[in-house]
Amino acid sequence: MSKGSVFVSGACTTLLLAVILGCTPHADPASPSGASNEEPKQSAASVTSTQHTQQSKEELVLSFYKDSSLSDEAKVRHITDHLAGIHWGKMNEISEHQSMEIIDYLYKQRALVPSESFPNVIKGTAGLDGALTEEYDNLMEDLFTRDKTTMIRALADMDKTNRVQGIGGIGYALSYRDPKEVKKEIQQWQAGQQLTTAEKDVIRALFAKLDNPY
Fold first, then answer.
1. How confident is residue 52, by pLDDT bands cut at 50, 70 and 90?
2. How many CA atoms lie within 13 A of 104 on its CB side?
3. Average pLDDT over the chain, rounded to whole?
4. Which residue, 102, 152, 150, is CA-closest to 127?
5. Quick one: pLDDT at residue 30?
């Protein structure tokens, strides 16, 4: 092959390589393996779940109370599921003073409060005062009268602060009845029970509160 032919062949090869390299797509250095830079999209369910968990107790209870699509049974269950740790003063701040309205609703629908929610009700007394306290005490007293076993067991399993608060509220509401009759009723119930030491302590504290409700 002549020198001229070798030169032309080499030049063509160089030109061909340049064209190929110039047309080859380059991967974005910020995206390994040429991956797309688009952020993964969250599912609607995931977004809703995140928003739900970010709501405060007060916001959740208020949203359930205002949800007209719920039956009373479902509404009461949802509300009482989230009562533990609620602060009724904060509820008043975010709801334009609807705390009494919500507590009154729970009292009127008290027959729908499930037994498993009793501990949440006991733990939902923060921020109560005046008329709110009396209405909430009436709610707890009615639950106690309806199911002494569950309520006394729940009180016995409480930390000291919530136990004292719960016994105080129930005892105060029961004191509007004849204390002697109330004690007799509880004693008759107690006779057929096998109670733990903690549960017996709850009853003793309740009797003491009946003797001195204030």
1. low
2. 7
3. 83
4. 102
5. 45
Tokens linked to 161:
């602060």
Q: What residue type is 190 in one-letter code?
A: Q
Q: Write the DSSP string, the chain.
A: --HHHHHHHHHHHHHHHHHHHHHSPPPPTTSGGG---PPPPPPHHHHHHHHHHHS-HHHHHHHHHH-TTS-HHHHHHHHHHT-TT-BHHHHHHHHTS-HHHHHHHHHHTGGGS-GGGHHHHHT--BT--THHHHHHHHHHHHHHHH-HHHHHHHHHTS-HHHHHHHHHHHHHHHTTS-HHHHHHHHHHHHHT----HHHHHHHHHHHHHHH---
26-48 pLDDT, tens per residue? 444 444 444 444 444 444 444 44
